[in-house]
Amino acid sequence: MNKFFELGKNLNLDEISKLLFENKKIRLSKKTENKISKSRYFLEKKITASSEKIYGVNTGFGSLCDTQIDKKDIKVLQENLILSHSCGTGKVIPKEIAKLILLLKINSLCLGYSGVRLSLVKQLISFYNKDLIPVIYEQGSLGASGDLAPLAHMSLPLIGKGEFYYKNSIRKSKKILKNQGLETYKLSYKEGLALINGTQFMLSYAIWGFLKSIKLNKFSDLIASVSLEAYSCRIDPFSKLISSVRPHQGQIDTTKNILNNLRGSKGIFFNDDFVQDPYSFRCIPQVHGASKDVLNYFKKIIEIEVNSVTDNPIVFEKDEKIISGGNFHGQPLAMGMDYLAISLSELGNISERRVFNLISGERGLPKYLIKNSGLNSGFMITQYTSASIVSQNKQLCTPASVDSIVSSNGQEDHVSMGANSALKLYRVVNNLTTILSIELMNATQAFQIINKKSSKKIHSLIKEYRKVVPFIEKDTDLYKYISKGEDFIINKI
User: Fold this and answer.
1) Which of 198, 223, 238 is the last residue of a domain?
2) Domain identity same for 343 and 459
3) 177-221 pLDDT, tens per residue?
4) 405-429 pLDDT, tens per residue?
5) Disulfide engineering: 401 pairs with which of 229, 297, 307, 334, CB 3.0-4.6 Å?
6) Which structural domain range is residue 81 located in?
7) What are the CA-CA distances from residue 155 to residues 23, 158, 284, 297 (Å)?
8) Is 55 a catalytic residue?
9) Antiparallel, parallel or unpaired: β 314-316 and 321-323
10) Number of domains in the chain
């Protein structure tokens, strides 16, 4: 099996997922090396032959774009850029997302429109392949002008500054470079700017959120299937006829998932005792389905962005032009992530409502799913916890992309706030995992109390789950089982 993945062609989400989770190393094709070198050669020729102002190459940055820099200083300018823009604060971002940022930045430079030297790309590839992942901080990006502060921190180790993730710890880059036999890199013109211009911080969170959301959405269908049986629900809302007259693809897919999960079950019927079930059960195809449709929409945005040039200025070697534009503006990602967060919030919202019904003491279930309720409070407070997190998600889902703020002395007068959208999405995804853990705990408890004959898929799920979370006979400290349920879901998806 080939241990290396060659960069230089369009990346898709499956390939990105494999690169991250199978720990494949990367390398450049000869064709890609040539593209990078040609772009650099054209830029060098342009700088040598002309005194024309080229933004960020022989000028200052931001509102200093009209300040021309002396030729003898244009290399120093690039290192100054990295140092001055390293203003990240807050928590250190997870290593897996930082690794994705590094990968996406390398991929962007491989497209051959940034005018950097091949040696720069190879140094970044060395970092990636040796698992030397730069330490990046959460806060500092406005989601326009590129993810400036986060990408500056990604770039610091190149020049012997900043830190690496190294063997499960955070270490100063200079020592690690020496340990690995790597030299500090001397930036040349345009290279610092090419490193920090781009949407890779936002995009990495978008990809991470998307990949998690795909799996969480499908798993929410499975957990909801257990709840449907435990609550003695009717099967007719999942008729294909219902979806045939409102054929949203997400609704159709959710209906298929539910019916597949319940295939062979003896526990869900045309129940004449209950003419209609509460919306949180009856409308699963419509609500879960709408979230699936959002995922399909957002996938298109991500796949375009992954293989796009978000640098500035952009070097069009074949056309012999260097053009300043606004491809670094994160509005498509910001709006998409806000939309995705809202869709995930609704999965949690409807999940909490099912928990509320399961513990209500209806349809043959004891109050709070416990024997001798009164002496025992059972699962009462699990609903409180779920409701608290659901409400937090609603608060987090106020769109960041409707906000903007003026920066750089008015030069950068509209920004996307996409980095804030990214960080909010990250929290919503993790919150949803907890909410689903709570529903799974309640649904399996209720299911076993009712003691129905279900499908192989449902019984298999419960059997696996019971290896980490037991059936609860009397009051106990439930927080540890919520946490174990989260791990179960994460490992399951």
Assistant:
1) 198
2) yes
3) 999 999 999 999 889 999 999 999 999 999 999 999 999 999 999
4) 877 766 777 888 899 999 999 999 9
5) 334
6) 4-198
7) 22, 6, 46, 32
8) yes
9) antiparallel
10) 2
